[in-house]
Q: What sequence folds into this?
């Protein structure tokens, strides 16, 4: 009888712990799957797109195309094989929260393509804070306008 009670208590405790762990994991996943990101600015208007039988033409002055490194920080938006269409910003007013920008970061030798999560002004002037869509933390430091090379206008897969 004593062993049955001990076994029952152990099963109760194990069940409670398993439920607690499952609930934490489920809650953590639902935060990432249901959180809506702010959409980027609409950089290509319908009037700039012409569709023909043998081609599609996008009239976008100053556009550049880009390939991305497989760092997983912007999955699933930007991944190996994706081709980006980018435009060069003319002023800081061209950049808004939700845009994906390519910029020179002082924490890496490579260009970084991450989403703008905040813009503002401080004692040094305008800045943007950025973050990869697939990471839980913001990039270190503030990105200044002079560090920004491109704004993502579209992605082709």
A:
């Amino acid at each position: 009888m004593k062993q049955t009670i001990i076994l029952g208590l152990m099963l109760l405790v194990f069940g409670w712990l398993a439920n607690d762990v499952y609930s934490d994991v489920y809650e953590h996943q639902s935060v990432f799957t249901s959180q809506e990101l702010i959409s980027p600015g609409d950089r290509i208007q319908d009037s700039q797109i012409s569709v023909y039988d043998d081609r599609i033409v996008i009239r976008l002055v100053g556009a550049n195309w880009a390939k991305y490194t497989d760092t997983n920080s912007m999955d699933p938006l930007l991944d190996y094989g994706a081709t980006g269409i980018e435009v060069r910003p003319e002023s800081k007013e061209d950049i808004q929260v939700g845009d994906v920008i390519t910029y020179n970061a002082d924490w890496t030798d490579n260009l970084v393509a991450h989403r703008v999560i905040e813009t503002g002004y401080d004692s040094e002037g305008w800045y943007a804070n950025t973050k990869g869509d697939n990471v839980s933390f913001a990039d270190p430091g503030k990105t200044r306008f002079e560090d920004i090379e491109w704004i993502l206008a579209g992605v082709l897969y």
Remarks:
- Residues 1-35 form one domain.
- Confidence is low (pLDDT under 50) at residues 7-13, 17-32.
- The chain is about 20% helix and 30% strand.
- The first helix runs from residue 2 to 34.
